[in-house]
Amino acid sequence: MPLTVQIPYTRLIDDHGQPQGDLPGWIDDPQLLRAFYQDMVLVRAFDQKCVALQRTGQIGTYASTLGQEAIGSAVGHAMTAEDVLIPYYRDTSTQLQRGVAMHEILLYWGGDERGSAWENPAVAEDFPICVPIATQACHACGVASAFRIRQQPRVAVTTCGDGATSKGDFLESLNLAGVWQLPMVFVVNNNQWAISVPRSLQSAAPTLAHKALAAGIPGEQVDGNDVLAVYDRVSQAIQRARAGKGATLIECVTYRLGDHTTADDASRYRSAEELNAAWKHEPIGRLQRFLHERGLWDEQQEQQLQRANGERINDAVERFRNMPPAETAAAFDHLYAELPAQYLAQREQLQARLDAQGGAGHE
Amino acid sequence: MNDQASISMVEAINLALHRAMQDDPDVVVLGEDIGTNGGVFRATVGLHERFGFRRVMDTPLAETLITGISVGMAAQGLKPVAEIQFMGFIYAGMEHLVSHASRLRSRTRGRLSCPMVLRTPHGAGIHAPEHHGESTEALFAHIPGLRVVIPSSPRRAYGLLLAAIANPDPVIFLEPARLYRSVQQVVPDDGQPLPLDTCFTLREGQDLTLVSWGAALKETLEAAALLADEGIDCEVIDVATLKPLDTDTLVASVSKTGRCVVVHEAARSYGPGAEIAATVQEQALHALRAPVLRVTGFDCVIPYARQEMAYLPDVGSICQAARDVMQGEI
Q1: What architecture is the A9-322 domain classified under in CATH?
Q2: Residues A181/A155, Cβ–Cβ less than 8 Å
């Protein structure tokens, strides 16, 4: 039987910033349009800084968001404060918007657990970065179930990559979201590569959004490099979930312009031609052109933004560098609500070993 | 108390679930067949009718999901009590237990936590199909951040389950299937939890410490009674919480008796008996008058129903190990 089900695909502006058909009403909000742009430029600059910090040994392995800035920015704006983000590990923009501090993100990638112990109460319920692929989808179902049980008009938003859609966790979660009509949104960052494995080797499904259909929930595709389209569709999906109409899967078609992480070398498995072609679709330039043509952005604003971003990033890096070392035995202090007496001796041994190594955890 | 009827362990578990759900609106119950059917062992009978589908949730047949959504619910402050139908099916949830439930508190430095309970039938001896007789508690007891609890009587099942549900951290609650209906006890529904992280001394003695948990305590206690007739005075300790292990009680007992035999259903190598023996020799070597012996299941795949009883530690093997350590003829 031919796979004839057509999955909707949304794009509001093309690679050159040209509108594609009628634009939704919220497009007339210049502040929002500028905010998308500002977020994306900030995150790209921060991303560049993170890679540089890794290359100079100041943070550990880091997963770049290069090329995927539109998705993070759009999801952050589409969510409201009371919603909960259950992210994967390329959600810097969304996390910053929701209130995670930039130096906390550096702490996380710098090998310090305090990087997920966010001080801002606005993100108290958001989940930390999730490394085991697709497991966060199940947690998001649990969060959404809690909203359903308590009858709260809140939405759980979870993100993942294209590789994650091959895992049982993802499919079991989609399935439950359908059966229980959970208030949640699955945002798939289809960046075409799961480390070295291309999209074509992940699934024979015509689109990843097709996977939603078997679960009985709507699935759709969006141009993941078009921040306006992502915002529009994710907002709709969140509203739908909040209204009690269940979950949606949104496949954001994008491209990972960077390596998988700083520990990866993508030139081993993908061609320069492919990468160069993908750069033509990147998300920031097209929105800049769109804003220019509407008279919403000029060179002076651009310089101002670059300066402000530079200062903000430098401040965060300074704050990260100046963080006093963690109380090392914290690994035991937060193992249980109250450390069982059985482990007190081991806690002392860990502390002693760290003291002997000349300082609490920093080299 | 005397006019109260005796109940089985599975009824005591059911009683504790009713009690916990009644006393705390954050307690929710989920799993396969736990709703209308009341669970394949009937541990959740009546909950669905009494507390409704919102708090008593039949899930799709997906153990990874059951474990994973429990993490999400618990992070939201609910107290999910999830049932895995048999221990042989718990492994699909392993990633969520090892990589998330056990460490959510630690990796967020206390910002989020995971007060969930995962209940599952434990052990062999009920002539069930393959994959239905597992004793793999050591897999979970190895994981920092988890608690592993195994009751050995209806009363302890009631009190320990209430404690597990009230506990602010994740608890793997292993229910000896062989004891579900074979033992009856009066269990007052007083809402009183029993202490976790502590052993229970079931029988005091001077000559030898027998350490066990779960269903194997049945044979261990029978052996202790027979050994008493031979003039060997056994102390019998129910470990009850395998992680964290109450080493103080174990070491104090062995310091007194000078001898120790550990009895468990689980396979021998890398089993909890090894941990207990290592702890005893570390902390009470000079009190020991004989090596610590283990009477355990074997390092083989647990046989199907026709031979499964031969796999389990029996009274004769426990008595023989006791006589061996008494005579120092190891």
Answers
A1: 3-Layer(aba) Sandwich (3.40)
A2: no
